[in-house]
Amino acid sequence: MKIENAKMVRGEITVPPDKSITHRMIFFASLSSGKCEIENPLIADDTMKTIDLVKSTGVNVSFEGNRLNVEVKNVREPTSPIFCGNSGTTTRIGLGFLSRLPIFSVLYGDESLSKRPMDRVTEPLSKLGAIFDGRNYASNLPISVRGGKIGHADYISKVSSAQVKTAFIVAALNGDGISTYREPFESRDHTENFLKSLNAIEKTGNTIKVKPSKIPPFKSTVVGDFSSAAFFVTLGVCHQNARVKIKGVGLNKTRTGFLSVLKKMGAQIDVSNVTQDFEPYGDLTVESSALEGIEISPEEIPLLIDEIPLIGLVGAFAKGKTIVRGAAELRTKESDRINAVVSILSSMGVNIEEYPDGFKIEGDQKLKSCIIDPSGDHRIAMMAAIAGVCADGVEIKNPEIVSISYPSFFEDLKRVIS
Ligand code: S3P
After folding, report:
1. 401/247 Cα distance (integer angstroms)
2. How many CB atoms sit inside 10 A of residue 134's CB?
3. 362: containing domain
4. pLDDT of residue 57
5. Which residues, in sequence order, are bridge partners of residue 202?
6. Which of 14, 34, 361, 362 fits a 20 to 30 Å CA distance from 121?
7. What does the DSSP 8-state code read for residue 366?
8. Host H or E run for residue 49
9. Can you give the pLDDT at residue 277?
């Protein structure tokens, strides 16, 4: 796909519903004791994989307009392996979900997902009593699970990962006693937000105490995905002639580290109409901005983990140096995102240095056009498109992979550029 430079960015968009929250609501509804309704779920490749997973264990999932109805009748043992596609969240939270059920199941994924580390979840879930086997001793897919007997455990994770945290909590909720989970820095807390109202967890700093609890039937509405909005926020601040409004965006503080960093860089972003539901949401109005480089600290990383490729792009448009450290986790995402950012920006003529856990950019440079292969990574494809619109255009291979998280990305982009 050819993306041309735009002369002007103007208009309003509503980004798709949040991917992380949609996955969680489907899993929690599939553990509930009755019929649940999820309004405004994200329907994209990744969340469809979570729907497929729960359906294969006997959960009824039906669409009614913009609503998902989820109800468990009888738990069933899947008769064939469950395909998780490209979705790390389906796999990791799914392993926690399957650990609770008295069934045998096998998960497998695409080439990218098969390379991603799964021992980070199979280790804590084994401590809770689930039985795994799989490639590299259950470190990589395919992985088999035999669940049904959850005890309790105290676990200190080496990684700050909301997927691992959620997998542990989901299993521990069905345990035979209180469990605790600790992570180095706080990661996104959608799971805790949902469970707080049930009195199922207690959080002190980065330590979470999980009490065995049942999930009653619930109704919830999914807010707009901040990580999808972040592409348009980047477009607004980097383009020289931009003013764009993004409506209904989730503003959970464990997701919006990117906004705080941009504001420190001098970005013109106005947050309005903030409403507090079980997750806060509001509108973002973003304008062309004069940006200064910044250094990002390791504890900020989990709060903007999916936006770090965009920090690279913003850094290329900012005056001075932008430095990201403590982000080695990025190498374990849908692609090696440190390497992807470095190779895309250097092909565009940006002076960028790669570190094992981040990168350093000398900003305020003119970006030139190039051909980009996003290596099957949806967020890298979208970052490349935004780079092209702000610079001299780009050509993107396999652009259709945006359907993993944001199926209407290119239509929304076309709507605001001219
Ligand atoms: C997610 C958590 C993050 C993020 C991923 C979605 C989630 O991963 O990168 O896109 O829904 O919990 P980690 O928790 O592994 O950092």
Report:
1. 24
2. 19
3. 2-16+223-416
4. 98
5. 209
6. 34
7. -
8. helix 45-56
9. 85
Burial 4-36 (b: 16+ CB within 10 A, else e): eebeebebebebbbbbbbbbbbbbbbbbbeeeb
Burial (CB < 10 A; 0-12, 13-18, 19+), residue 79, is exposed
Q: Which amino acid is at 415?
A: R
Burial class (CB in 10 A: 0-12, 13-18, 19+), 292: middle
- Per the listing, tokens 């919006």 go with 256
Boundary-marking domain end, from 192, 221, 250: 221
Task: Give all strands (DSSP E) within 183-265, no chain letters.
Answer: 201-204, 207-210, 219-221, 242-250
The residue among 180, 200, 221 that closes a domain is 221
* Catalytic annotation, residues: 306
- Residue 57 Cα to ligand 1 middle (Å): 24
pTM, 2 dp: 0.98
H/E stretch holding 100 reads helix 88-100
Cα 271 to Cα 413: distance, rounded to the nearest angstrom: 21
The pLDDT score that the predictor gives to residue 73 is 85
Residue length of the chain: 418
Ligand 1 pocket test target in 21, 22, 112, 161 with most atoms within 8 Å of CB: 161
Total number of domains in the chain? 2
153 contact partners, CB below 8 Å, separation of at least 6: 124, 127, 128, 172, 179
